[in-house]
Write a structure and sequence with these properties.
Radius of gyration of chain B: 21 Å
CATH architecture of the largest domain in chain B: 3-Layer(aba) Sandwich
Number of helices of chain B: 13
CATH class of the largest domain in chain A: Alpha Beta
Largest interface: A-B, 51 and 45 residues
Number of domains of chain B: 2
Structural class of chain A: alpha/beta
Number of helices of chain A: 14
CATH superfamily of the largest domain in chain B: Thiamin diphosphate (ThDP)-binding fold, Pyr/PP domains
CATH class of the largest domain in chain B: Alpha Beta
Strand order of the largest sheet of chain A: 3-2-4-5-7-6-13
Oligomer: heterodimer
Number of domains of chain A: 2
Order of helices and strands of chain B: HHEEHEHHEEEHEHEHHEHHEHH
Helix content of chain B: 40-55%
Strand content of chain B: 15-25%
Largest sheet of chain A: 7 strands, mixed
CATH architecture of the largest domain in chain A: 3-Layer(aba) Sandwich
CATH topology of the largest domain in chain A: Rossmann fold
Radius of gyration of chain A: 21 Å
Strand content of chain A: 15-25%
Chain lengths: ~400, ~300
């Protein structure tokens, strides 16, 4: 029997409407609110609290938590659960995210809705396990082999950990693509006040399940019931006898590995189903951009010191604004292009040696100066460290 | 339901249309294992809407594609982890994994160990052809000592993996090994494995004339298939010889594969235990223990 989301039970298990919780725990709440009923996990700092939270709460709402043998198994079980009809997620950090890359691509190729929360820490390799970073932003976009479109959100506070995990499920269900919540150790281990949204305020999207005649059903083409490049989802056990493979496949799902056209048709559909909708997916927050000469382009934890630096600079008469990317992938190219035409300088503070600064430069197309403001080593930028980039002493 | 009597009728019912011909070579054992599985399913009379086949990468992992049922053809070695998720999402489904020796005992060894240890409710059918066939004959964890592989051109100096004894040690509910040259016991055994709760493994020794046979003076299909008859012994006989036989008899067992049922027990499967846990936490009439209460409060 498949899981049925029970809003009343969920509220009972999550507890008070207003709470003071860890970012990691807010991801757990978001997942459960979205209807997640399977979590496959493996302990890793600073994401372990998500697995712990799921182990504690999921069975109480009737969902399943399994601690898998590694992160490869975790994402594999999550994808399997999704085909079994569950909303499923996992959570990890850098080393685990690296291990997940092959099956991340499998989820893309087989159009499997699922959510991966990455509480990023420093690297390369084991790095600084307990300290935050934003080192995996490009890995979320390019980490698995082959051509694909990524969807990734970057929360800047604990409330957004909850909200963005719900949003991640919505996007993954809508586009049938894996979606990453790219939080960082700072936000994951930050404790803040959150408000659990009421049921009536929740927007929850579920995948469109296949309902049409089994003989006529085409599992891997455009939808046969809606105007969409996302096919309806034939949940295992509902009689559609679907063959799902990571090999290049035709619309029937049968392997079609030796013809250029078959591959092109498939991969162009699974990438354009997302890129066609980029304007609908993009989510940014603009602050003080109306009169700004200089703009921060930020995401995740590094938006916080940038915001303070912006306010400090404004007090000294420097017109600074901020564009915060709530959704980093797909990249809001048009928004950044327009910003580049408007301001003289864009500063990109990141807790890495410069990752998102590159697509920013590409989008700006030389219309203004783009400066990377990197900081690594597991510490956030301090606001005053960002002031020199603004010409403020 | 009309009774199925011939292989042709069986194939008509269970094979997926439009997927033929198969990728398998002449003399390959994979099709035979598929046929045995169909017979076992037919005897059980299962609703094929509720059976899901999962596989990894390799020749035998292509089998789910040929079956008229839901199938998930996953990444190399990870089939059992995917299968775990499917079963978790809907415990009403019967999950069957087809995997090869490289897929299961090589790259997927750790997933195998833990699926068996957790007693996850699934049946794993591991087709062991001693070699990486699809990639052209490289050394496998099951390649017999001394055999030739493209990546062991001077003979294998590693000792092969005994997956059945591993599964037995892990406490799997059902463990058996057969060869494709013995038709009756395997069908009966598969049927038993499929009916089992918890984890069940059936290993098939299956010939690969192309990638293994040719390099090991067994390229002739008939000769290779006969090799399996000559190199297998019933588990009971094997154990008797190893316990009471002479040194010469024991020495002769060195290159022999015991076949038969290695384990047949009835521990509750993972999902049975999990459902008990959920019932304990969610049941209306149950009294929460102080311990549970403390965890919830935390």
């Amino acid at each position: 029997m498949r899981y049925k989301r029970d809003p009343k039970k969920i509220r009972e298990v999550l507890g008070d409407k207003v709470q003071f919780v860890l970012g990691d725990m807010a991801c757990v709440y978001g997942g459960i609110l979205a209807g997640c009923s399977f979590f496959g996990g493996y302990p890793i700092t600073p994401a372990s609290e998500i697995a712990e939270g799921m182990a504690r709460l999921l069975p109480r709402v009737g969902g399943t938590y399994i601690q898998m043998e590694d992160e490869i198994g975790s994402i594999a079980a999550v994808i399997g659960a999704s085909w079994g009809g569950a909303k499923a997620m996992t959570a990890t950090s850098g080393p685990g995210f690296s291990l997940m890359m092959e099956n991340y691509g499998f989820a893309v190729m087989t159009e499997t809705p699922c959510v991966i929360v990455n509480i990023q820490r420093t690297g390369p390799s084991t790095g600084q396990p307990t300290l935050g970073a934003q080192g995996d932003m490009m890995q979320a976009r390019w980490g698995t082999h082959g051509d694909f479109e990524a969807i990734a959100l970057a929360p800047s506070n604990v409330q957004e950990c909850l909200d963005f995990t719900i949003e991640a499920f919505n996007l993954s269900e809508k586009y049938r693509n894996p979606v990453c919540v790219m939080a960082d150790g700072e936000i994951g281990h930050l404790r803040e006040r959150i408000t659990i949204p009421d049921e009536k305020d929740l927007k929850i999207i579920n995948r469109v399940e296949a309902t049409i005649d089994k003989e006529k059903f085409i599992p891997f083409g455009v939808s046969q019931t809606r105007k969409s490049k996302v096919p309806d989802f034939p949940v295992f056990g509902t009689g559609y006898h679907t063959y799902v493979t990571g090999l290049t496949h035709n619309e029937k799902g049968f392997p079609a590995t030796d013809k250029q056209k078959d591959h092109e048709k498939l991969v162009k559909r699974i990438t354009s189903k997302i890129s066609d909708d980029i304007d609908k997916i993009v989510k940014v927050e603009e602050t003080h951009l109306d009169d700004a000469d200089i703009a921060f382009v930020t995401y995740g934890a590094s938006a916080r010191p940038a915001e303070t630096a912006m306010e400090l600079a404004r007090k000294k008469g420097v017109k600074v604004g901020m564009l915060r990317l709530k959704i980093v992938w797909p990249f809001p190219e048009k928004v950044i292009y327009k910003l580049g035409k408007k301001v003289d300088k864009i500063i990109v503070p990141e807790m890495n040696l410069g990752q998102i600064v590159h697509p920013v430069k590409e989008a700006v197309s030389g219309n203004c100066e783009v400066v990377s403001a990197p900081k690594i080593g597991g510490e956030m930028h301090l606001p005053h460290e960002l002031l020199p980039y603004l010409g403020v002493k | 339901m009309t009774e199925i009597k011939t292989a042709e009728e069986l194939n008509k019912k269970y094979l997926r249309e439009g997927m033929w011909p198969t990728i398998f070579c002449n003399g390959c054992g994979n099709g035979v294992v598929l046929e045995y599985t169909f017979w076992a399913l037919e005897e059980l009379g299962w609703d094929m809407d509720k059976v899901v086949f999962v596989s990894g990468i390799g020749c035998s992992s292509r089998l789910p594609g040929y079956i008229n049922a839901d199938g998930l053809h996953t990444t190399h070695g990870r089939a059992l982890a995917f299968a775990t998720g499917i079963k978790a999402a809907n415990p009403d489904l019967n999950v069957i994994v087809f995997t090869g020796d490289g897929d299961c005992a090589g790259i997927g060894g750790n997933h195998f160990i833990h699926a068996a240890r957790r007693n996850i409710d699934m049946t794993v059918i591991m087709i062991n052809n001693f070699i990486y066939g699809m990639t052209g004959g490289q050394l496998a964890p099951t390649t017999p000592f001394g055999s030739i592989a493209t990546t062991a051109p001077y003979g294998n100096i590693e000792h092969p993996f005994d997956i059945c004894n591993l599964a037995k040690a892990l406490g799997a509910n059902y463990v058996a090994r057969w060869t494709v040259t013995h038709p009756y016991q395997p069908i009966k055994s598969l049927k038993r494995a499929l009916q089992k709760k918890g984890f069940s493994l059936v290993e098939f020794l299956a010939p690969c004339p192309t990638a293994y046979g040719r390099r090991n003076k067994l390229g002739d299909i008939k000769k290779l298939w006969k090799w399996y008859e000559d190199h297998t012994i019933l588990l009971e006989d094997y154990e008797r010889i190893m316990s009471y036989g002479s040194e010469e008899e024991k020495e002769a067992m060195k290159d022999m594969f015991p076949i038969g049922v290695f384990q047949d027990i009835d521990k509750p499967g993972f999902f049975e235990e999990y459902q008990k846990l959920v019932a304990r936490l969610m049941g209306k009439n149950n009294k929460k223990t102080a311990e549970t209460e403390a965890v919830i409060k935390k």
